[in-house]
Amino acid sequence: MNPVTVLHASQLVTVAGPDRPRVGAEMQDLAIIRDGGMVIRDGVITAVGLSDEIERSAGKAETIDASGCVVLPGFVDAHTHPVFAGNRLDDFERRARGETYEQIAAAGGGIWSTVEKTRAADDIDLFEQAKKHAQWFLKCGTTTIEAKSGYGLTLDTELKILRTIQRMNRETSLECVPTFLGAHAIPKENRQTREQYVDLVVNEMLPRVASEKLAEFCDVFCEYGYFNLEKSRKVLRAARELGLKLRIHADQLTNSGGAKLAADLNASTADHLEKMDEAGIAALKSANVQPVLLPGSVYALGSTCYPRARAMIETGLAVVLATDFNPGSSPTPSMPMVLSLACTQMKMSPAEAITASTINAAYSLSRGDKIGSLAPGKLANFSVFDCEDYREIAYWFGVSQTRAVYVRGERVV
Ligand SMILES: [Zn+2]
To answer: 199 and 64: one domain?
Structure first.
């Protein structure tokens, strides 16, 4: 088969560099090639360089003309909750009226309403909705997501969600990295017996998830009133023993020690971290845990308490950005929107934000050798944006600049 060439990109943003996550000043270096091009064979990038050289070396090839455009590695969204039924429109309106979380929950909203709808949905409905979400991610230039369960909270419904994620992998162009999040909330039927629910997660759910190979990672919502440090540790240890890697929802609502727990357990990531203190930052640094920052949820909840990205970058943490796509606190699949928030609210530079949402995110999912940058040997997952300078992707917000999206060299948007 003839190769495919991409030619004449105003900026081919390769994000090429060392074979590890980028830290400190490295996050600013996107290894941009002006008038850049690349060669793709069988879905894999085989050469990257100046368009003239690429055109000469490739010989007879099908050509993608990227003139006047920025070409970027497909975004890697390392924290999403894409499988759920329904929406939370009533919560959204109540919050706009100024009602509190407690008032919204008392009116039948909150996470529990999504759990009930997701439990009730049949496999076909649930997949149809997930497929729509997958299409949204692709349209925003995202080619890989981390996908959590967590809106079932019974053995059967958690398995139903993880199988839906498996089906997204088979039947859509979006790559989904599955994470088991049975410890997302305590289900209503177990309110009196938190201990029993943790036992159910540890003794029944996790062994099934592991034996059916339905997840690569295990996550826990570590927070007072949900899963405290002791219960979070119990779930995560059990997961690790079964061969799963770890991620943690940590220090979102309170500084409850989640970051330190992530460091103790050598988790891949600690996510949210809006309330993390200096000791938490130092703990992540000492254990090389990657922080995953989710400004979309801070924005959508109407808060101003963004995580301290600058302090984390200056400490040398390999910062990751993600959408936290979910119906309650972050109803956006858009990584360009997250880049805008990262720059305006967390004072990251556009280049740091792109590094955090491509190569660093790929490493956080143990896929840094396959995706996250445009370099020979990597999958040809990339997006073509209708702009000439990569900073425009973060700058113009609220308008889609995606012209085309490719997965393994095939156009999917
Ligand atoms: Zn989340």
So the answer is: no
Q: How far, in Å, from the CA of 93 to the mean position of ligand 1?
A: 21
| Distance from residue 326's CA to the centre of ligand 1 (Å) | 7
Residues 202, 296 within the same domain: yes
CA distance linking residue 80 with residue 373, whole number of Å? 21
Span from the CA of 329 to the centroid of ligand 1 (angstroms): 9
Tokens 């309650």 -> residue: 328
Q: How far is the CA of 334 from the centre of ligand 1 (A)?
A: 15
Written as six digits, the tokens of 91 are 């919560």
DSSP-assigned letter for residue 43: T
Q: What is the pTM of this model?
A: 0.98
Q: Looking at residue 102, what is its pLDDT?
A: 82
Q: Which helix (H) or strand (E) holds 53?
A: helix 51-58
Give the structural domain span for 279: 75-364
Q: How far apart are CA 346 and CA 200, in angstroms?
A: 39
Q: What is the mean pLDDT of each run of 10 residues along the chain (413 residues)?
A: 94 98 98 98 98 94 97 98 97 94 87 96 98 98 98 98 98 98 91 87 98 98 93 98 98 92 98 96 98 98 96 98 97 98 98 98 98 98 98 97 98 96
Same domain, 37 and 115: no
3-class DSSP assignment, residue 314:
helix
Residues 1/46, Cβ–Cβ less than 8 Å:
no
- 65 CA → ligand 1 middle, Å: 38
Query: Are 312 and 324 found together in one domain?
Result: yes
Which H, E and C letters describe 119-166, residue by residue?
HHCCHHHHHHHHHHHHHHHHHCCEEEEEEECCCCCCHHHHHHHHHHHH
Q: Name residues with Cβ closer than 5 Å to ligand 1, which is an ion.
A: 324
Tens of pLDDT, residues 93-137: 999 999 988 889 888 899 999 999 999 999 999 999 999 999 999
Shared domain check, 190 and 308: yes
Ligand 1 centroid vs 330 CA: distance in angstroms?
9
Give the Cα separation of 199 and 354 in Å (integer). Answer: 40
